[in-house]
Amino acid sequence: MSGGTGSVRAGAQEPAPEGGDEAAEDGRAPVDFDAFFTAHRPALLARAVMLCGNRQDAEDAVQDAFLAALENWDRISGYEQPNAWVSLVMRRKLWRALRLRLKAKRAALDVTLPRQALPDETAQARRVLTAMAALPPRQRMVLVMYSLYAMTHQEIADDLNIAASTARGNLRKGRDNLRRMLGLAPDTDPLGEVPLVGTGGPAPGDRLAAALSAAESWLCSAFEEDEQAPRQARADLAGRQREGMGRK
């Protein structure tokens, strides 16, 4: 799944992208934006929902992130991992939006059920997403960044502009709360011993991370099968780009 990683710090500051050191130097041709948008939008949207618990907020952050990339595509397309830059912009937009609220809205999933998903898989994914939406925003953000982006406590702290101890504490509370809501057994090892989860999948035995990964995969499949939404989203991006150019 191409949801991006937390390891690309990229110096990618939004909205004015930096990070020339991340640009590819192999002389390859720039990636076509439409192909990039189509390939990465489902996974990015799935992860945004995991981060914020609300589809509309996720859609807004993903659109804003892709718009930032589109407006600077000559530069962003040369990065080794342009999807990681877009993911970073999306996370920061969601974090700023969540910090302005006293309470996050509950999950508004409103997604087409994946055709290949079994009823049990759908029921479990909805349980996980509903439980995630009930977590305090900071706990949810830290939990997803640790479990799905494979980010360290310090990387999470840097990304959210909080102390590493705060990131660690919110991760512990988030895991405890989510486990309780899902009826999972407590961690058997100290929190510092819980393995990171990355693109290789959940660490063996970490049932909580496995549940998060399965819910994200379910969401991604749902968004990949929604054929109308990407076309409309791309048209909206083009319209917003024209509006922005008209104001300059």
UniProtKB/TrEMBL annotation:
Residues 126-177 form the RNA polymerase sigma factor 70 region 4 type domain. Residues 233-248 have a biased composition (Basic and acidic residues). NCBIfam families: sigma70-ECF. Belongs to the sigma-70 factor family. ECF subfamily. Residues 37-99 form the RNA polymerase sigma-70 region domain. Residues 1-25, 225-248 are annotated as: Disordered. Keywords: DNA-binding, Sigma factor, Transcription, Transcription regulation. Residues 9-18 have a biased composition (Low complexity). This is Sigma-70 family RNA polymerase sigma factor.
